[in-house]
C-alpha cells in the first residue's frame, strides 16, 4: 500500500530585518517632515490672505460710505461706478449692491478662477462684495508641494547610505526656495527669532512695515520694534504696537506669535499686520454712525445716548438739565429760492454759531463728563441742545436768548445775505421727569408752540402744551376720515366792484362740520392738513366742488361768476397741479377765465420751478392772485417774473383805514403799485362805508368783507345773489339785506 504523499513544506513568513524596518520608519518620517511644513504654512498663508481680503473690503466700504454721505442720493450710483472703475488692484472685482440686492456698481476686473470673496456692509444700506483670484497663491502652494514631493522621491531613490547620511539636508535644500517664495508673497510681516529674542530671519514685508532693511533687523532683539506685553514666547494673537523707522514712529498692529519646531532647538515666528488702515476705516464708520456729515455735530443716535447720560447725571447731582429743540424759521424758503447747496452752507454756519455761542463753558460735541452742553443736529433744520448743571429754568432761558442773539447777525451765503431766526422749545428735567424720548417730544411740542406765536420765540413745555398735542393727534385722526364722511363744506364770500357794487366774483372758504360739534374754521385744521399731506385730496375736492357749483348756477340761469380758490404751498410742491386744474376744468365744463387761484407771497419763493408752474397755469387761461399782499416776502421782482393778475390787500392794512396814517400809506402804496403794473386790486376785510370810500378814492377795483356779506353756504349765497340781481342798478350795496 502506497503511503500518502507528504504535505508540501510551508515557507515561514519573511520577517523584515531591523535595518529594513528602520528604513520604512525613516521613509514615513521623511514624508511627514517633507509634507507637514508645507501644509501648515499653506494653511497659515490661506488664513492670512483671507484676513487681508476682509480688511481690504472694510477699507473700500468705508471709502464708499464716506462718498455716499457727501453727495445727493440721486448721484450716488454714478459716483460709486466711477470710484470702482478706478480701482487699480489687479485681479480684484468689487461690486456694490443695494438693500434689495440690485447691483448698483461694479469694477471692470475679471479675476481668474479659483476665487474667494469677502463682504462688508455699507453705512446707509447695501453691501460691498470684494472678489480676488487665488490662482497665484495656489500656484505657490502647488510648487511647494511638488518641491517637497520631489525631495521625497530623490531620497527614496538614493542609495541607503546616502539616505541616512544626507536625507534631511536634501529635503531642506529642496524646500527652502519654495518656502522662501511663499513667505515673501505674504502682505504681513513675518519675523523668525529664537529663545533669546534675537531675529534670525524676516520677509520683505517685515522690512517694509518696520521701515528698515533686513540687515538692520537681523540679529537685533524683536522687542526693539514690537511691544511684547504678553511675552515673546506666549503663543496667540493680540493687538499691539510696533515701531517704524529710525527714529521710530509707532503704529497699531496685530501680533500673532507661533512656535516653529526646529531640530535641536525651537524657533518662534512673529506675524505683524498693520492695523492703521483698518483703524482708520473703523473711525470713519464710527464718525458716520454717530456724527452728522454736514455739520460735524452729533447725530440723532449719539444725541439719544448723550441725553440718557445727562439725565443720569442730573439725577445724581440734583442739578436741573434742560433740553432745547431748535427749528430754523422759514428755512425752506432758502432751499426753494437759493438751492439746497446754499441751504447746506447756511446749516453749517448755523452749527458754527451755535458752538461759538455756547463755547464759553462747553466743549461742543465731546463725550467727556465735564461738558455742560451737547449740540446735535437731528436732521433738516432741526437742532437740539442739552444744557446741564443749571441752577434753575431761568438759566435755560438765558441760554436760549444767547442763541437767538448769535443767529440774528446776517449770514453771508455766496452772494446772498440771509438773516436767520429760530423757534426754540425747552423742557427742564426733573421738573419734567419723563424718559428721554418723551422729553424730546415735549421740547418739540414747545417749539411748535413758539412758531404758532409768531416765530423767533422761546416756549417752555407745560402740561397744557401736552394736552394741546393730544388734541392735535385726535384732530389729525378725525381729519383723515372727514373727506370720506362728507364733513367738509364750502362757504362763499362775495366780491363786488367797489364803484358800482355789482357782484364780480366770490372766494370759496373751506369749513369742517365735525361730528357732534360746531363748524371748524380753517385756522383750526388747515395746518394739520398741510403737515399730514391731506391737503392734496382735500384741495382737489375744493376745486371740483367750486367748479361744479359755478356751472350749476349758470345752468340755473345765473350769470357766470369768477370763483377764487386758495392754494397751499404743498399743492405747489407736490403732485401735478396743472394736470389737476386742467382735469377739473374739463370735467366740470367751467371756462378757465372763471377760475382764479390765490397764492401767498412766500409761495412764490420756489424760484424757476414755481415760475414755470405758474406760467403753465396762466397758459390754461386761469387767473392768478397774490393773497395777503404785504405780509410775506414782498418782492417786486416776483411780480414782474410771474404772470399775476390780481393783488389782494390784506385785511390788517384795511382795518384801521382811513384813520391810521400808516395803514393809509400802505394801502395807497399797494394800489399805486398794482396800477403801475396793470394789476387788479382787491381789498379784504372791508367792514365800514368809510373804508370803502377811502379805497374807492385811491383807485381800488374790488372789495370783499362783512360790509358786503359774511361768508355764506351755497344755498344762502344763491338766494342773496339773486336778491342783488333784482335790485336796481343804483341800489346801495352796503344797505342790502343779508340772509
UniProtKB/TrEMBL annotation:
Pfam families: EAL, GGDEF, PAS. It catalyses: 3',3'-c-di-GMP + H2O = 5'-phosphoguanylyl(3'->5')guanosine + H(+). It comes from Rubrivivax albus. It comes from the Bacteria. Residues 472-725 form the EAL domain. Residues 175-230 form the PAS domain. The chain crosses the membrane at residues 24-46. One of its GO terms (biological process) is regulation of DNA-templated transcription. GO terms for molecular function: cyclic-guanylate-specific phosphodiesterase activity. This is GGDEF and EAL domain-containing protein. The keyword Phosphoprotein does not apply. InterPro entries: Biofilm_reg_signaling (IPR052155), EAL_dom (IPR001633), EAL_sf (IPR035919), GGDEF_dom (IPR000160), Nucleotide_cyclase (IPR029787), PAS (IPR000014), PAS-like_dom_sf (IPR035965), PAS_fold (IPR013767). CDD domains: EAL, GGDEF, PAS. Keywords: Membrane, Transmembrane, Transmembrane helix. SMART domains: EAL (SM00052), GGDEF (SM00267), PAS (SM00091). Residues 319-463 form the GGDEF domain.
Amino acid at each position: 500500500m502506497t503511503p500518502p504523499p507528504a504535505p508540501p513544506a510551508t515557507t515561514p513568513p519573511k520577517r523584515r530585518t531591523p535595518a529594513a524596518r528602520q528604513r520604512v520608519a525613516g521613509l514615513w518620517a521623511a514624508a511627514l517632515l517633507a509634507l507637514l511644513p508645507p501644509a501648515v504654512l499653506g494653511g497659515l498663508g490661506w488664513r492670512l490672505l483671507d484676513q487681508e481680503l476682509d480688511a481690504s473690503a472694510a477699507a473700500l466700504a468705508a471709502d464708499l460710505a464716506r462718498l455716499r454721505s457727501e453727495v445727493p442720493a440721486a448721484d450716488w450710483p454714478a459716483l460709486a461706478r466711477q470710484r470702482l472703475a478706478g480701482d487699480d488692484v489687479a485681479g480684484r472685482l468689487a461690486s456694490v449692491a443695494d438693500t434689495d440686492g440690485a447691483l448698483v456698481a461694479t469694477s471692470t476686473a475679471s479675476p481668474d478662477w479659483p476665487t474667494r470673496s469677502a463682504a462688508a456692509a455699507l453705512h446707509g444700506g447695501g453691501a460691498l462684495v470684494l472678489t480676488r483670484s487665488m490662482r497665484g497663491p495656489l500656484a505657490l502652494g502647488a510648487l511647494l508641494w511638488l518641491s517637497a514631493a520631489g525631495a521625497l522621491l530623490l531620497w527614496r531613490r538614493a542609495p541607503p547610505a546616502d539616505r541616512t547620511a544626507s536625507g534631511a539636508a536634501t529635503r531642506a535644500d529642496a524646500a527652502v526656495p519654495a518656502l522662501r517664495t511663499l513667505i515673501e508673497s505674504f502682505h504681513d510681516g513675518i519675523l523668525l527669532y529664537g529663545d533669546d529674542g534675537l531675529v534670525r530671519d524676516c520677509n520683505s514685508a517685515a522690512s517694509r512695515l518696520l521701515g528698515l532693511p533686513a540687515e538692520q533687523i537681523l540679529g537685533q532683539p524683536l522687542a526693539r520694534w514690537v511691544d511684547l506685553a504678553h511675552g515673546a514666547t506666549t503663543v496667540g494673537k493680540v493687538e499691539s504696537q510696533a515701531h517704524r523707522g529710525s527714529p521710530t514712529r509707532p503704529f497699531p498692529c496685530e501680533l500673532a506669535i507661533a512656535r516653529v519646531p526646529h531640530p535641536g532647538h525651537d524657533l518662534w515666528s512673529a506675524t505683524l499686520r498693520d492695523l492703521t488702515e483698518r483703524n482708520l476705516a473703523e473711525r470713519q464708520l464710527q464718525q458716520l454712525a454717530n456724527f452728522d456729515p454736514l455739520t460735524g455735530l452729533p447725530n440723532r443716535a449719539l444725541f439719544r445716548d448723550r441725553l440718557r447720560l445727562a439725565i443720569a447725571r442730573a439725577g445724581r447731582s440734583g442739578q436741573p438739565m434742560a433740553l432745547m429743540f431748535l427749528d430754523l424759521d422759514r428755512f425752506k424758503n432758502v432751499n426753494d429760492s437759493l438751492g439746497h447747496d446754499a441751504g447746506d452752507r447756511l446749516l453749517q454756519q448755523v452749527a458754527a454759531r451755535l458752538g461759538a455761542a455756547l463755547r464759553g463753558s462747553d466743549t461742543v460735541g465731546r463725550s467727556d463728563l465735564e461738558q455742560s452742553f451737547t449740540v446735535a443736529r437731528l436732521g433738516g433744520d432741526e437742532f437740539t441742545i442739552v444744557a446741564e448743571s443749571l441752577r434753575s429754568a431761568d438759566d435755560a432761558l438765558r441760554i436760549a436768548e444767547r442763541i437767538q442773539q448769535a443767529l440774528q447777525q446776517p449770514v453771508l451765503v455766496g452772494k446772498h445775505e440771509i438773516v436767520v431766526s429760530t423757534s426754540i422749545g425747552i423742557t427742564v428735567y426733573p421738573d419734567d421727569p419723563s424718559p428721554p424720548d418723551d422729553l424730546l417730544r415735549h421740547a418739540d411740542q414747545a417749539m411748535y408752540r413758539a412758531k404758532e406765536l409768531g416765530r423767533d420765540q422761546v416756549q417752555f413745555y407745560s402740561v397744557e402744551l401736552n394736552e394741546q398735542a393730544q388734541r392735535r393727534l385726535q384732530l389729525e385722526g378725525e381729519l383723515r376720515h372727514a373727506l370720506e364722511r362728507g364733513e367738509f363744506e364750502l362757504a362763499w364770500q362775495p366780491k363786488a366792484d367797489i364803484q358800482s357794487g355789482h357782484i364780480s366774483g366770490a372766494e370759496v372758504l373751506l369749513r369742517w362740520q365735525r361730528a357732534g360739534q360746531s363748524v371748524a374754521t380753517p385756522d383750526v385744521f388747515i395746518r394739520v392738513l398741510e403737515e399730514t399731506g391731506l391737503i392734496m385730496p382735500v384741495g382737489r375736492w375744493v376745486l371740483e366742488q367750486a367748479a361744479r357749483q359755478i356751472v350749476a348756477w349758470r345752468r340755473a340761469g345765473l350769470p357766470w361768476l369768477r370763483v377764487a380758490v386758495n392754494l397751499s404751498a404743498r399743492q405747489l410742491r407736490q403732485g401735478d397741479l396743472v394736470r389737476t386744474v386742467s382735469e377739473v376744468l374739463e370735467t366740470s365744463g367751467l371756462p378757465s377765465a372763471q377760475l382764479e387761484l390765490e397764492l401767498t407771497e412766500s409761495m412764490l419763493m420756489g424760484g424757476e420751478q414755481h415760475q414755470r408752474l405758474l406760467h403753465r397755469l396762466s397758459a390754461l387761461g386761469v387767473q392768478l392772485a397774490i393773497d395777503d399782499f404785504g405780509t410775506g416776502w414782498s418782492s417786486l421782482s416776483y411780480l414782474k417774473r410771474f404772470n399775476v393778475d390780481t393783488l389782494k390787500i390784506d385785511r390788517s392794512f384795511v382795518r384801521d383805514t382811513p384813520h391810521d396814517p400808516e395803514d393809509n400809506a400802505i394801502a395807497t402804496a399797494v394800489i399805486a403799485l398794482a396800477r403801475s403794473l396793470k394789476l387788479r386790486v382787491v381789498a379784504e376785510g372791508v367792514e365800514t362805508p368809510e373804508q370803502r370810500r377811502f379805497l374807492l378814492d385811491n383807485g381800488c377795483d374790488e372789495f370783499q368783507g362783512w360790509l358786503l356779506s359774511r361768508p355764506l353756504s351755497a344755498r344762502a349765497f344763491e338766494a342773496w345773489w339773486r336778491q342783488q340781481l333784482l335790485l336796481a342798478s343804483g341800489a346801495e350795496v352796503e344797505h342790502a339785506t343779508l340772509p
